Amino acid sequence: MSHSGQGPSPRVVEGWVSLRDAIADGQRRLAAAEVPSPDTDAILLAAHVKGVPRGRLLLHDRMDSQERTAYERLLTRRMARVPVQHLVGSAPFRKLDLAVGPGVFIPRPETELVAQAAIDALRALPEGERRAVDLCTGSGAVAFAMATEAAPTQVTAVEVDDAAVVWTRRNADALREDIAGAGSRVDVVHADARTCAADGEPLAPLRGTAAVVTMNPPYVPSGARVRDPEVRDHDPAIALYGGPDGLDVVRGAIDSAAALLQPGGLLVIEHSDEQGDEAEVGVPSLLELDGRWRDIADHRDLARKPRFTTATRAMDAR
Q1: Cβ burial, residue 14 (10 Å; 0-12/13-18/19+)
Q2: How far apart are CA 214 and CA 161, in angstroms?
Q3: Which residues make Cβ contacts (< 8 Å) with residue 227, sequence separation at least 6?
């Protein structure tokens, strides 16, 4: 029997099927359902079912009946456009494997460039001066990347959403030994990125001390329709939508960043490809009008689309 006319089902022999056949069948079915990256997703789901890293999957040649049932269940959910990261319970980010699921934004490859800019800046500093704050931290991807790749670094990860901060703390616990072994520290703070450094707020004692502030804020305009169902239906709205022009959270978080950074400190902000240096109202223009920043530069991602802005805290801090 075939699935949607996409080729034969894997041949069953004494309760097991060839792993290669099962994966090929999964790839055909995911492609027929117009799932992005069907080949990779079928392999990731098979590795999850087998309980092995993707790189060791080729050491196995069978999928037994119980594994086949589990694989079928996962394929059905993926064809319904449940994110593959939710199905396997994790998402890769640079050198890390982060726990993710419903309630937290799934880290994207584009954000790895944001982390790289911050890591480069921290590595250029003497070890005792490496202090960073990651606003709108979500799963903690950028925060934990800084802590492990620019060690030793003191990082404060800030998240406002009740559901998302559970995942931040889960990842902090999972990575505790790696972070401590690197000589770093990550403090998770449940607070609003727009007000966290104001008088009486949790980060007020850190004002003027940070060398780097990063943020991947919600930046989709509230009236915009997100095309991908994996994002639209499964990423939390609080992590996606940023008001009428998408920049409401950014405006408030820029105030926090200006308060937290020492003069000469670096700000790194991710934005959409429509909020870069060519936009009439975009992140670079907001920073220009703000007056507390110099060396404002917009940067493109691997697809050559505007992706993030860097700026240096001016010495004449107001």
Answers
A1: exposed
A2: 17
A3: none
For residue 61, name the pLDDT band (cuts at 50, 70, 90).
confident
Task: Pull the structure tokens for residue 91.
Answer: 């998402």
* Block residue for tokens 């920049």: 247
The string of DSSP codes covering 249-296 is HHHHHHHHHHHHEEEEEEEEEE--TTSSTT-SSSHHHHHHHHSSEEEE
Predicted pLDDT of residue 10? 58
| Greatest Cα pair distance in the chain | 76
**Residue 234 and residue 101 in contact, taking contact as beta carbons nearer than 8 Å:** no
Give the model's confidence band at 15: pLDDT under 50 very low, under 70 low, under 90 confident, else very high: low
Peptide bond into 284 cis (omega under 30): no
State the number of CA atoms in the 13 A half-sphere of 260 facing the CB.
Answer: 34
Closest CA to 162 of 217, 239, 241: 239
Element (H, E) at 22: helix 19-32
Q: Which 3 state secondary structure label does DSSP give 209?
A: coil
DSSP state for residue 119 in the 8-state scheme: H
For 131, the token pair is 């202090």
Neighbours of 287 (CB within 10 A): 24
Average pLDDT over residues 123-151: 97
With 0-12 CB in 10 A as exposed, 13-18 as middle and 19+ as buried, what is 39?
middle
Residue in 217, 104, 206 with CA at minimum distance from that of residue 156 = 206
Domains recognised in the chain with CATH numbers: 12-80 (1.10.8), 90-313 (3.40.50.150)
Provide the b/e sequence for 59-79 (b: ≥16 CB within 10 Å). Answer: eeebbeeebbebbeebbeebb
**Long-range contacts, 283-289 (Cβ 8 Å, 24+):** 283/247, 283/250, 283/309, 284/309, 286/247, 286/250, 286/251, 286/254, 287/254, 287/311
31 C-beta neighbours (distance < 10 Å), count = 16
Residue 78: left (phi > 0), alpha (psi -120 to 50), or beta? Answer: alpha
